[in-house]
C-alpha cells in the first residue's frame, strides 16, 4: 500500500497546475505591495521622516504628537459618529426598501434602478451634488424660504456642530441602494414554503422577518457589514467634495488627515503614524470577528 501511495504524491502537487501558476502574480502582489507596504509604513511611522523617508528612529514621538493633536481627535470623533449612524441607517433603510420591493410591486425594475443609480456615481460627484442641495442660498433652505417660510434654516455644511450629519446624508443617499439590492437578493433566496408556513401558523409578518427571515440572512448581513465598514474607514472623497474638512476642522476624518500630512504638510512620519493607527483600529475589529466567524467554530 505504501508503494502505491508514494507515486501519487507528485500528481497531487501537479493538479490544477495552471491555476496555481495563474495565482502567482496575485500572491506576489499581495505579499510585496500590500503586506510589504504595510510593514514599511509601520516601520517608518517610528521615524522623523519629512519630505522623504529617512531611517532616523524617534520611538513613539510621532504617536505622542498624533494623540496630542486636536485635529486628529476631532477626525476620530467624526468617523465614529459617521460610522455608527451609517451602519445603522444603511442596514435599516436598505432592508426596509428591500422588504417593500419583495412584495412584487409594479415597476419594480424601475424603482430598483432609481435606488441603485446613485451608487454608480463617484463620491466626488455625489459630494458636489449634495454640496449644492445643502447650500443655504440656492439649496433646500433657499427653496423653502422662497416659498414663504423666511425663518426656515437648514445649512448643515456650514454649522460645525452638525456638519458631519450633512456628509452622512450624502453617504446614505449613495450607498443605501446597494444595501437594498443585497438584502433583496437575500430575501429572494428565502424558500416560499417558509412564508406559507408562517402565514398558516398565524405569525405576524414583522415577527416572521425578525425571528425567521433575518437570522436566515446572516451571511448577507455579514457581507453587507463588511462592504459598509470598508467604505466608512476610507471616507475621504465626500468630505473633500462637500466641505474640504471645514468649517475649520469640524468635518475632518482620519483619511484626510493622513493625506494632508503626507502630501501637503510634507510630514511623512506623522502621516505614517496616523495610517498605522487606522490599520490597528481595523485589525482590532476585524481579527476577533474573523476568528469567531471562521476559526472559532467547531469543525465537523
Automatic annotation (TrEMBL):
GO terms for cellular component: plasma membrane. The chain crosses the membrane at residues 21-43, 79-101, 113-133, 162-187, 208-233, 272-292. InterPro entries: ABC_transporter_permease, MetI-like, MetI-like_sf. Gene3D superfamilies: MetI-like. It is a multi-pass membrane protein. Pfam families: BPD_transp_1. It is found in: Cell membrane. Residues 76-291 form the ABC transmembrane type-1 domain. Keywords: Cell membrane, Membrane, Transmembrane, Transmembrane helix, Transport. Belongs to the binding-protein-dependent transport system permease family. This is Carbohydrate ABC transporter membrane protein 1 (CUT1 family). It comes from Neorhizobium alkalisoli.
Amino acid at each position: 500500500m505504501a508503494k502505491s501511495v508514494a507515486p501519487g504524491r507528485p500528481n497531487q502537487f501537479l493538479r490544477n497546475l495552471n491555476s496555481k501558476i495563474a495565482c502567482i502574480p496575485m500572491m506576489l502582489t499581495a505579499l510585496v505591495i500590500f503586506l510589504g507596504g504595510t510593514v514599511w509604513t509601520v516601520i517608518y511611522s517610528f521615524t522623523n521622516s519629512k519630505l522623504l523617508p529617512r531611517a532616523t528612529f524617534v520611538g513613539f514621538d510621532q504617536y505622542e504628537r498624533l494623540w496630542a493633536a486636536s485635529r486628529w481627535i476631532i477626525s476620530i470623533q467624526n468617523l465614529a459618529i459617521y460610522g455608527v449612524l451609517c451602519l445603522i441607517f444603511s442596514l435599516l433603510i436598505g432592508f426596509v426598501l428591500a422588504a417593500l420591493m419583495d412584495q412584487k410591486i409594479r415597476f419594480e425594475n424601475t424603482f430598483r434602478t432609481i435606488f441603485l443609480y446613485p451608487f454608480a456615481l463617484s463620491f466626488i460627484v455625489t459630494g458636489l451634488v449634495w454640496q449644492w442641495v445643502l447650500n443655504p442660498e440656492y439649496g433646500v433652505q433657499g427653496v423653502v424660504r422662497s416659498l414663504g417660510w423666511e425663518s426656515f434654516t437648514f445649512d448643515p455644511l456650514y454649522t460645525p456642530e452638525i456638519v458631519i450629519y450633512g456628509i452622512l446624508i450624502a453617504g446614505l443617499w449613495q450607498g443605501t441602494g446597494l444595501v437594498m439590492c443585497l438584502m433583496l437578493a437575500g430575501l429572494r433566496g428565502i424558500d416560499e414554503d417558509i412564508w406559507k408556513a408562517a402565514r398558516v401558523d398565524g405569525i405576524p409578518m414583522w415577527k416572521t422577518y425578525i425571528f425567521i427571515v433575518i437570522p436566515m440572512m446572516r451571511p448577507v448581513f455579514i457581507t453587507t457589514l463588511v462592504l459598509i465598514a470598508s467604505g466608512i474607514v476610507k471616507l475621504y472623497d465626500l468630505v473633500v467634495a462637500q466641505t474640504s474638512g471645514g468649517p475649520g476642522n469640524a468635518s475632518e476624518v482620519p483619511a484626510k488627515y493622513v493625506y494632508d500630512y503626507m502630501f501637503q504638510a510634507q510630514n511623512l512620519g506623522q502621516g505614517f503614524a496616523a495610517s498605522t493607527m487606522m490599520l490597528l483600529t481595523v485589525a482590532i475589529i476585524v481579527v476577533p470577528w474573523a476568528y469567531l466567524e471562521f476559526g472559532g467554530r467547531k469543525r465537523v
